[in-house]
Amino acid sequence: MIIRLQGLVLRNKAYGESDQLLFIFTRERGRVSMIVRGSKKPRSRFGAVTEPFTIADFVCYQHSPTSMPSLSQADIIHHNQMIRSDLLLTAYGAYWLELVDRVIVEKEPSVTLYNQLGLLLAQLNEGKDPEILTRLLELAVLQEAGYKPVFSQCANCGASWKNGEATAFSLTQGGMVCTNCMTPRDMSIKPATAYYLRILNDLSADQLGEVNMKWETKRDMETILQYYLDAQLDVKNKTRVILHQLRSTWN
Amino acid sequence: MYLPEPIVNLIDGFQRLPGIGAKTAQRLAFTILKMDDEDVADFAQALIQVKRDLKICTVCQNISDQDICDICQDKSRDTSIICVIQETKDLIAMERTREFNGLYHVLGGAISPIEGIGPEQLKIPSLLERLSDEKVKELILATNPNMEGEATAMYLSRLVKPFGIKVTRIAHGLPVGGDLEYADEVTLTKALEGRREV
What we know:
The complex is a heterodimer of chains A (about 250) and B (about 200).
Chain A: E1 2-15, E2 19-26, E3 30-36, E4 55-61, E5 70-78, H1 81-84, H2 87-103, H3 111-125, H4 130-145, E6 167-170, E7 175-177, E8 187-189, H5 191-201, H6 215-233, H7 238-250
Antiparallel strand pairs in A: 1-2, 1-4, 2-3, 4-5, 6-7, 6-8
Helix pairs in contact in A: 2-3, 2-4, 2-7, 3-4, 4-6, 5-6
Chain B: H1 5-15, H2 22-34, H3 37-52, E1 55-56, E2 63-64, H4 70-73, E3 78-85, H5 88-97, E4 102-106, H6 125-133, E5 138-141, H7 147-160, E6 166-169, H8 185-193
Parallel strand pairs in B: 3-4, 3-5, 5-6
Antiparallel strand pairs in B: 1-2
Helix pairs in contact in B: 1-2
């Protein structure tokens, strides 16, 4: 059986002497794994297509419905080479791919997340602020996992926000809460951080323009979203450790 | 199926090797059974020796049976050039070319953000030590032309900059004997970037 897919390479794994296992994220079938024979040999046509961040059209042959598809043809659509040419951007991208890989499942379509990831990678490749893009990706991953945070109104009582009102992030409520609903366990949020979180939460990657944000606001947004991600997805991101390490030493 | 314990242990042992499944392990175990006693003893001895006698060269981090490997001890080699490679297997490939007469440094892997492998897991401090001690003029970064290899090369090139040493990267491009029409756009772009005057 011939399978035709368009997908984004999440990761590859050495298999045997010169083969690789390729894990791709597809719009219609979620995560798909396939074997790429001989891809580590210099004359292989599949050397470049197995690199992470590559978006390509894949043609695979599957011997039986239970067997692993084998790649027989691939045409690169976007190679996102600029990401791979910069160590820090590679670390950001790797963190994104690991997050996405945690929430997608085989044979289940993830159209919104696929589109958002493709757009965000293109913007990362063009040199847009990786911190803002990372927050958008984290919000998209949370939405895909069914934990989209509530920022547009109080997550507990539904009250709308007054200008400059003090707010806090509640893990149990899954969003921002007003002064009346906040508890000592909640994490207080500065007005500027709350403002940007509200905007980013409902923004698609293609709507993002130039954003001038203070370094502290970016850090606060990161702290809140990663705190929420860790609590809801319960995963330990090895790529995030590398990203933090490189971010502090590389710039 | 009943099998005596010694052969079960041998099958289990072979199965620990990469790419060897139950069937292959069984076939290998029965081949051992058919071999002469002397050959089996030699084979067993080789397995023990490889773990007991092999060391890591204190200079280049390559595997060796001495504290300093033959390449590092070779006086005819050009000590002003160090070629940085990921694994010992890469050293064998480089030596096959017979074109390189410098020294090596084996990193023991590559930076891989996806696998969570950071620079601190590689043998970079010993490389920096060599650069400050030895009279090195050029550092060739011969890590693999993939995401991990590129990340490592980028990291090292920046790290080595303060030493004022010439840092070069091995060329990327089309394989000898290959056809241009079958090359992908990433490889072709790299080949164009690395073109040279003839």
